[in-house]
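Lab notebook, bench 4. The sequencing result for the construct came back, and we need a structural model before the next group meeting so we can plan mutations. Quick request posted to the team channel:

Model the 3D structure of this chain.
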Amino acid sequence: MNKKLYLGVDVGTYETKGVLVDAKGIVYSQKSIKHEMTIPKPGWAEHSPDDVWWGDFVNIARQLLNDKDISPDQISSVAVSAIGPCMLPIDKDASPLYSGVLYGVDTRATEEINYLNRKIGVDKIFKFGGNALTSQSIGPKILWLKNNHFEIYNKAAKIVTSTTFIVQKLTDQCVIDHYTAANFTPLYDKSSLKWSNELSEEIIDITKLPELKWSTEIAGNITKKASAETGLPIGIPVTVGTIDAAAEAISVGVRQAGDMMVMYGSTMFFIGICEGNKSEKSLWSAPWLFKNEFALMAGTSTSGTITQWFKKEFAKDLDSEEALQVLSVMAEKSPIGSKNLITLPYFSGERTPIQDPNACGIIFGLNLTHKREDIYRSIIEGISYGASHIIETFMRSDFIPKKLFAVGGGVKNKIWTSSISNISSLSQELKSKTIGASYGNSFLAALSLGDVDISDIDSWNKTNQIINPKPSIIYEEQFKIFKKLYENNKELFSQ
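Done. Here's the predicted structure in token form:
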């Protein structure tokens, strides 16, 4: 077999996936590796850069190349995505000086956010970068490093994110795509698409940030050292890459204005392609993966992670591998509305749209008739209310989804997908291939060489199912209470 193949790898919160695909979108090999997210303190979330980010990439690449029908010289290009935005200080040899501080689920920099908002001004920050300062922002996390570990901050040659770290290990080039860089608020100027110290010189010297490029630009080529570690041939081109959610959006066909991805995973993530350069204070905005294209984004702090917590703490009698599936079947026996239970899914604060790191989880309405399946269903429905709150916020900002694409491991949960459609009154498309971001990366790898056109993703991954909404008065009323629950308790959360 001498067919050209494209390698896509994605490092997620709890799992890394890799896939080899040809120019028609046919999958020749795919592998996955599970890993852990470390929570050293409440509100913190970390990965080991060497063990998880780079270690998983090396293992995945070698596993794929060990397939008997695969020859390394078939691989034409490589594209990588990873969780993000993350904050990692590295030395001049690209060795980590600290753990990888994760995206918005890590809320350690709350004091730095408040400080920068007071010093610079909330409106000025938003106007400059198109984003408010939140737990998703990397600027405050760099300042946290400076305030708490100055010796590491001072020693750092660069501050990078997860994708940058992997690409640099492969090519020796320190680069970042504009889509990811826009999350480095307040260091990225959305109008000029450049790094800037205009708002805060005290955070970092911007020469210590990666070089800005577009996602499908070639960052560099596989080095001799990277080849020895991964088994990939020397000289293969590697793209700049992006954040996992963006690659996931590409994988299901999000490619034109009005398209929106709903990603069901450890957290939920939303990406909508805009008509122009829009900003909304309750959401995030960024240049999209390609020049002259823009996106609005949103994300929850917890979703699938709550189901994992519930399984661990309240389903110890069930087989660990099958527990979530068994719980989902049990939950289907509970009625819509979970017997009048409403869950606030803010188990690790919340990102969009409330942007409140102090928000807490609530299971509201409990009485002695409730069973495990009612509580579990209420958690799923609570996550869905949170997602619908985000979709409602998109619509308020004049973004009306023309197509809603569902993707991620959570689409297997029927209650989760159906309740989001039923609450939001929007249909969702499910694609035939549910591999996710690694598959999107394979497409971006092919796109970087000009071997495919952006519209070819429609033939790579065709629509398999459409989930149509079935509006419910119960959901309509509970959604109102859901929003009131937060408003009525937010002062208590901060106390």
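The radius of gyration is 22 Å.
Will bring this to the meeting.
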